[in-house]
Amino acid sequence: MPANLPPQYLKAELEFRALANPGDRLEKLRELYRLLPKHKGTEKLQSDLKQKMSRLRDEIEGAGPGARKQGPSHRLPHEGAGRVVLVGPPNAGKSAVLAGLTNARPEIAAYPFTTRGPQPGILDWKGVAVQLVDLPAISPDFMEPWVPGMVRSADAAILAADLADDDVAEGLESTLDRLAAEHVELVGELPFDDDDESTRHLKTVLAAVKVDAPGALDRLEIVREWFGTRFPVFPVSTTAGQGLESLAEAAYHSLGLLRIYTKVPGRPADRTKPFTVPIGSTVLDLAREVHRDFESSLKFARIWGTAVFEGQSVKRDHELHDGDIVELHAP
């Protein structure tokens, strides 16, 4: 949680946690967005609030008595520390990237629109589970109507570019334009002065797939020239395994998370499964993740890690850093 949030925001946040009705929660989220100061330190929180509003709107619209039935449901439970969606034009290699980064085994074929529904897999990055979801291709002529909603509800995206295609740049622009028309903008860096709650900005990395195809290096230069200032570009060969590790690391970091390890007094730290909290989180934010009772009972913590000496006692508002080991103390 970013520091220096106004008292009105903190009060509204407490009220939001006490609400159960989806409509009331949505209105309180809108109030939180209005109260949130718009600056560099709150860019991730702005994005998270938009994501929560989008999910609640989908929940409300899908549960209403007049909700329309439009074929099979494509709802997918969120798993892991965050969801990263794979988007791109036809035949860009998204399914191959999913198979290369996770244990999923999607259908992979040389013809377009092989993927018709959401295909999930789990990426394990240093003990943190991240949900990757391969989505149907987006072309100038067709996009599955449910795809923008799934992209809007994600935490980050991988935009796949087909380096075997002479029209690779046009395919990427078409994908970006079709999503932008649905108020979803893929960006390399989140805007920090955005007052428009209707447009979802999603932090995105660009996977330049099939880097080993004939002529791919020339097309890679085109991709870097057209899109290198908008997105970080990662050349990938799924057949040779080239670039997959760097892409996995970039996908994880696009979530804006910290890995925090906990320990019980007198025992070693549990390094098997870290907690994940947003960058800017405090000891109190971690305590809420560990157990809801800690929010009221936490007195202090001891920390081993960055910006402290070993085992230093800190207060509830101490800001955490990636890889910190935290020992929570309550009466």
Counting helices, strands and paired strands, the structural category is alpha/beta
Distance between the termini: 25 Å
- Strand count, sense and closure of the main sheet? 7 strands, mixed
Estimated radius of gyration: 21 Å
* pLDDT < 50 runs, ≥5 residues: 64-73
- SS element count, helices: 10
Name the average pLDDT: 86
Q: Strand fraction band?
A: 15-25%
Estimate percent helicity: 25-40%
Number-wise, the strands total: 12
Notes on the structure:
With 331 residues, the chain is α/β, with parallel strands linked by helices. The chain is 33% helix and 22% strand. The protein contains 10 helices and 12 strands. The protein has helices at residues 7-18, 22-35, 43-63, 94-101, 147-152, 168-180, 216-227, 244-253, 283-290, 294-297, and strands at residues 83-87, 119-125, 128-134, 156-162, 184-187, 200-209, 233-236, 257-262, 270-278, 300-304, 312-314, 325-329. Strands 1, 2, 3, 4, 5, 6 and 7 form a 7-stranded mixed beta sheet that branches. It has a 5-stranded mixed beta sheet with strand order 9-8-12-10-11, covered by helices on one side. Strand 10 and strand 11 form a beta hairpin. Helix 1 (7-18) runs antiparallel to helix 2 and helix 2 (22-35) runs antiparallel to helix 3. The longest helix has 21 residues, at 43-63. The two termini are 25 Å apart. Residues 64-73 have low confidence and may be disordered.
